[in-house]
Design a protein that fits this description.
The chain is mainly α. About 80% of the residues lie in helices and about 0% in strands. The protein has 5 helices and no strands. It is elongated, with a radius of gyration of 29 Å.
């Protein structure tokens, strides 16, 4: 990235020198502005990628996003989080099934402790 910034600085400096005769201060300001612009571009775009999908899939995402009043990027972010959450919940359910089958006594202890926590956190309406 340092190399890209140096190249951008040199390119901006050359453009400034070639356009009109100016003072050193003006050239420095222009070069600095160009480097900052280039860095801003790199920092914003560097965390993005491209996914190749069929046009029909792209169009379905676009239609779904439009109905929800959001961008396709926001829709994909939301859907990916939902899928990750669902996978985590499925993993937890699988581990609970395994515990119940492998060690029924530990499973009963787990349920009893959960019941105690539930009772302790319930707000009493008649108090």
């Amino acid at each position: 990235m340092k190399y890209a910034v140096e190249r951008a600085s040199v390119a901006v400096s050359r453009m400034s020198v070639a356009s009109t005769p100016q003072t050193d201060t003006t050239l420095t300001k222009r070069a600095s502005f160009g480097v900052h612009l280039w860095l801003g571009y790199l920092l914003r775009v560097s965390n993005l990628t491209t996914i190749k999908i069929p046009i029909q899939v792209r169009d379905r995402f676009a239609a779904a996003a439009e109905v929800r009043g959001m961008t396709v990027r926001a829709l994909l972010d939301q859907l990916s989080r939902q899928v990750a959450d669902a996978a985590l919940m499925e993993q937890a359910a699988q581990q609970m099934r395994q515990l119940r089958e492998a060690d029924p006594e530990a499973w009963n202890d787990y349920l009893a402790e959960g019941g105690q926590w539930e009772e302790a956190t319930i707000e009493r309406l008649d108090a």
